[in-house]
Inverse folding.
């Protein structure tokens, strides 16, 4: 299973769930693919929305138009993924070459790693230069360049919850990894 890697697949906007469901169904129908394509994910992020004064937890797509596929890259799997309705291609693939898998650092930022690895990550001491009430700027991800106030710091998960204004008068609490924010 050492040839197993995570790949990013570009889809038509709004087709992420349909693409995931279609690939999952293809895997169920073709027994030869079950040990070659292990998982298809739509990266989601929990956010708290405030609408009409009511707070509500909502799962939002981290990267609209993209799905992640954990697979062995070979002719069969490439063909199945590439010819799934709604897929436009692999991210990072130059014509005539193999798609480029995600790195370990990229997987950690997305929260994709084994439980053993998660324990190892938590054992690494991290020093942060911000505290509750500080203004921080998001430096990576969909909300890059947004600023917000630190509301909570979770050392175990190595995340910070910040209150940020996405649109005018629309405040969200967003949980972001330590490495994705900097003190302003």
């Amino acid at each position: 299973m050492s040839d197993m890697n995570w790949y990013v697949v570009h889809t038509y906007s709004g087709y992420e769930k349909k693409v995931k469901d279609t690939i999952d169904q293809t895997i169920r129908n073709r027994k030869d693919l079950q040990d070659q394509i292990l998982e298809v994910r739509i990266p989601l992020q929990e956010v708290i929305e405030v609408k009409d004064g009511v707070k509500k937890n909502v799962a939002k797509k981290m990267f609209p138009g993209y799905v992640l596929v954990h697979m062995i890259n070979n002719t069969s799997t490439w063909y199945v993924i590439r010819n799934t309705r709604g897929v436009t291609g692999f991210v990072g693939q130059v014509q005539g070459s193999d798609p480029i898998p995600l790195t370990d650092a990229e997987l950690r930022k997305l929260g994709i790693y084994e439980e053993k690895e998660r324990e190892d990550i938590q054992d690494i001491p991290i020093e942060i230069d911000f505290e509750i009430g500080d203004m921080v700027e998001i430096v990576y991800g969909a909300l890059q360049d947004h600023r917000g106030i630190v509301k909570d710091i979770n050392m175990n998960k190595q995340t910070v919850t910040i209150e940020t204004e996405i649109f005018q008068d629309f405040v969200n609490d967003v949980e972001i990894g330590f490495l994705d924010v900097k003190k302003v």
